[in-house]
Amino acid sequence: MTVQTVQPHPVDVASARGRIRPMRIIGGALIVLVAASIAWFLISNERFEWDVVAEYLFNPSVLMGLGMSIALTVIGMVLGSVLGTFLAAGQLSDFVPLRLACIAFVGFFRGVPPLVQLIFWYNLAYLLPSIDLGFVSWSTNDVITPLTAAIIGLSLHEAAYMAEIIRGGISSIDEGQRDGAAAMGFSRWHTFTRVVLPQAMRVILPPTGSQVIALLKGTSLVSVIAMGDLLHAVQVIYNRTYEVVPMLIVAVIWYLVVVTVLTLVQRRVEAHFGRGTTRTAQPATTGKEEQ
Question: pLDDT means per 10 residues in the chain (291 residues)?
Fold first, then answer.
């Protein structure tokens, strides 16, 4: 007597139906309900004064303030990144005095709030009435304008954070990469710029993108030193018209627009430097093709 075994039918995974998950359906419905409630609140509440928002959204003074905020972000990020790179290299140096000086710099400027730094640099003339280089001298009030105070304060603050980001990215690279570069005759500088730093960019870029966005929002602090950024521009208008909420909405809209653009650029740059490290989907093969 022979026993026949029944072979199970192969299951086509591609055509299989997903399991119904009630909690996901409930969660999705709640999200839609909350979003609809927020949208209705924004539309139905007349105190938002959307007509005023539309009137001032492209106001020349608002656009000039937006341009100044973007310019401060670019200048602060470039100067902060350059100085942060040197600070990161200094913290990793085997020259102890340089390493300690860089660590102290980063610790100080990370610990002092940027608003305090801006106010301090703007009032530097109180401590230093003139800047004397021996052969030439300037009045501090002539040199430290709201613009220069904003650039110095934001750049130094950004340099401290970028130093830590770059240091973390460099430290993530295996020592074997440096040994291999040294075996090929690379100098320390060439090893850093051509071998270590390009590989560290995959680790450095995500937090750097967040720092750019944080710096853009941080430029709103320069309004306290009468710098004509976006927030200061809308403040000047609502101090005259008393339309505080609509003008703040104008600023919020422009901040969101610029942050969204920066986020998209960050994703593209990350994808560029992440090539070769992400998996690519393999085309599905059928049983007949395998046979």
Answer: 56 63 88 93 87 92 94 94 91 89 93 92 89 81 89 94 90 81 81 79 87 92 89 93 92 94 87 63 49 47
Cα 2 to Cα 6, 7, 21, 134, 257, distances in angstroms: 13, 16, 45, 108, 75
Rg of the Cα trace of the chain?
Answer: 28
**Using CA atoms, how far apart are residues 70 and 218, in angstroms rounded to an integer?**
11
For residue 138, the 8-state DSSP code is E
Read off the pTM: 0.80
Distances 224 to 120, 137, 149, 227, 231 between C-alpha atoms, Å: 12, 28, 11, 7, 10
CA 163 to CA 160: how far, in whole Å? Answer: 5
**Which residues have C-beta within 8 Å of that of residue 207, sequence separation ≥ 6?**
165, 168
**What are 2's two structure tokens?**
């022979």
> In terms of C-beta density within 10 A (0-12 exposed, 13-18 middle, 19 or more buried), how is residue 174 classed?
exposed
Phi and psi of 12, rounded to 5°?
Answer: -80, 105
- Extract long-range pairs of 54-61: CB within 8 Å, 24+ residues apart: 56/234, 56/237, 56/246, 56/247, 56/250, 57/250, 57/253, 57/254, 59/237, 59/250, 61/233, 61/236, 61/237
